[in-house]
Structure formats: C-alpha cells, structure tokens
Design goal:
This protein is of the alpha/beta class. The chain has 13 helices and 11 strands. The protein has an 8-stranded parallel beta barrel, surrounded by 8 helices. The longest helix is centred in the middle third of the chain and has 28 residues. It is globular and about 60 Å long.
Length: about 350
C-alpha cells in the first residue's frame, strides 16, 4: 500500500497547539524536520496546506507558512519523498503552471500540487446560510476549479522538454479562463507534475477523474471505501481515461499511542479542549490496531493507500514512522526501501487495474 501524511499546521486536531505549543508554527525548520522524518519512514509523499480561514477561532494560533516555499527548502534535505503543496485555483493559470513546473524541477521530479477551491469566511457563511444556494455555489466554484486545473494541465502538455522544437504557444478560449501564452517552464521528460485532489462527493470526484493523478477520499467505513471506488471508477469511465487512471488514497485522522488506554486518554484530553469535527474518519489506538484497519480497507476493500492526518504532528507522526510502518512491513504490506522514482512508484496502482 501507499502511505502519505498531511503536515498541515501543528496537527489535524484543533487542540494540537495546546500540546505542542505554538513556537514552531512559523518555523520552516519544523516542517523540514517533519518532512525528513516522513522520508525516514519511507512514506511516499506528504502534503502541506497553507490555506487558513481569515478569522481565527477560539484563541487558536492562526496562519501558515507558504507551502511551496517551505517545501522547496525541505526538498534540499530529502531525496525520494513526494512533496505536494496546495495551489489555490484562482489567479492566472499560466503563472500557476510555471510556478508548479519550477517547483517540480527544484525537487528533482518529486513535486506535485493539490489544486484547492478557495473560499473567504464571508463566502462560506453566506453559502451555508442557504442550503439551495450552497449547492449552486459549490458547483460554481468547482466548475471554476476544474477549468483552472484543466488550463494548467493543457499548458504542461504544450511545455514538454522532450519536444523542445515543438513547444507551442497555447491559445485557449472558453470556460472561466482564457489562456494565450508562450512556453515558460518546460516540464521534465519524465512527465508533468502530479496532481492530487481532495474529494468528498460527486463534484470533486469528477474533477479528479478528469485531471488528477491521485485522489484523496474520505470514507468512514469499509463499505464506504467500496462505494467511493465504484463512483470514482464510473466518473473515470465517463472521461474515457480508462476504468481507474487514479491512485486512490483514503484520508484518516490518527491518534496513536503504545496502548489503547493511552491513545483514548490522549484523544479525550484533546477533545476536552476543542472537539474534532472532521471531514474524515478518526482512528484512536495502537500502531497494530491502525495496521489492522489499513489492511482491511486496502486488501479487502481495494483502496490503494492512505493519507494519514496526525492529530498532533510532533507526537503522532513519529508513531507512524516508528510504530505503524514496521508492523505493515512485517505483514508484507509496505515497502522496506524506496525503489522507482515518484511517478513510476505511484502510477502502477492505476496501470495494473
């Protein structure tokens, strides 16, 4: 199976800052250290989201380092790990395409991006006040995101280094973004940067099916995994990309400790400070118990792997590396060394279907 980790903020739990303190929130060295730890654990990739609500809640620390910049620094201390910063789907797609292609070159072909729909606090508030308007608003924003992502991928298709003599001016009319651009940053011969999409329901599933290489999904049970994979396959078939051209990773919040009691106590203490209301399932328990769940969803339900969201990065990511990974290796479910480069490592899951 594939393993990824989300390195957002100080952890996935809103009370993470109470346990780890806030001193490192704006310290690039902390993110670099977590990235190096993920590579020590042979994880396939990490993601970093720098998009925060405009208004802080409950006295929590607020803000985030620019994801692309801090992961550029992390690239210099890692060799194999895939690095996926967030990219908001607004602005000029030509600028975005050039920036992400540059990042991929800086990382030596390990760079990707996660296109993300951006909402202001006021937009989110007004949309959620009216359920009917919220549905229409969501469709509108994802249509824009789909068009933006499509423009970026079309630019990359025209900027192939192995076809330097054929690099062409891109003229694109129609949709939310018109593009008229000369080549800026040729993509690597190994291919364009990988695109990963977080998807909870049909609209972002369609975006992933059309333009992505990886999709992060949010099932809450084994049956959910089966249902999600069935729907994603159907959307991929509609796009005529084959039955499943995507590598599918299930998102999972994790609170890990050496014993069940210790994990439950940690979770209880965190929830007492601020409840975790997440879009993804949460596991609380031991590394072996987490391995049992991952094995069931991977071997029985068919998901390719997982993007783990450590509840408290400084506590749970080390447990993933020192506890979970060895258990999965003992069961023959996870690699014991890096092999092929990132693109080749991630794409076989789709190619073998």
């Amino acid at each position: 199976m594939y393993l990824a980790a989300a390195l957002d903020g100080l952890g996935a739990h809103p009370a993470a800052w109470h346990r780890s303190g806030t001193a490192g929130l704006y310290d690039p060295a902390r993110v670099v250290a977590m990235t190096r730890l993920a590579e020590e654990g042979l994880l396939d990739l990490i993601t970093l989201d720098d998009q925060q609500p405009v208004t802080a809640a409950g006295g929590a620390p607020h803000g985030a380092l620019d994801a692309s910049l801090v992961l550029t620094q992390a690239a210099g201390t890692t060799v194999h790990l895939g690095l996926f910063p967030t990219g908001v789907t607004t602005g000029d797609p030509v600028v975005a395409a050039a920036r992400i292609a540059t990042f991929d070159r800086v990382t030596g072909g390990r760079g990707g991006w996660r296109p993300r729909v951006a909402l202001t606090d006021e937009e989110r508030r007004r949309a959620t006040e009216d359920p009917e308007r919220y549905v229409a608003f969501t469709e509108e924003r994802f249509a824009q995101a789909t068009d933006f992502t499509g423009a970026v991928t079309e630019l990359w298709a025209a900027w192939r280094e192995d076809e330097r003599s054929g690099l062409r001016r891109v003229v694109r009319r129609g949709g939310a973004f018109d593009v008229d651009a000369c080549p800026k940053v040729p993509v690597l011969p190994s291919g364009p940067p990988l695109t990963a999409v977080l998807a909870h329901f049909s609209t972002p599933y369609r975006l992933a099916a059309r333009h992505a290489d990886l999709v992060f999904v949010t099932p809450f049970s084994r049956d959910d995994v089966v249902a999600v994979l069935t729907e994603v396959r159907a959307h991929c078939a509609e796009q005529e990309r084959g039955p499943m051209p995507l590598t599918v990773l299930a998102d999972l919040n994790v609170v890990i400790a050496d014993t069940e009691a210790e994990a439950a106590a940690r979770r209880s203490a965190l929830d007492a400070l601020a409840p975790l209301n997440s879009d993804a399932a949460t596991f609380t328990g031991t590394p072996a118990g987490l391995a049992d769940l991952l094995e069931e969803w991977h071997s029985d339900a068919g998901v390719d792997g997982f993007r783990l969201r450590p509840a408290v990065l400084s506590e749970d990511l080390p447990k993933v590396v020192s506890g979970l990974v060895p258990v999965l290796q003992e069961r023959g479910l996870f690699k014991t060394a890096y092999g092929a480069p990132l693109r080749s490592r991630l794409r076989p899951a789709a190619a073998q279907r």
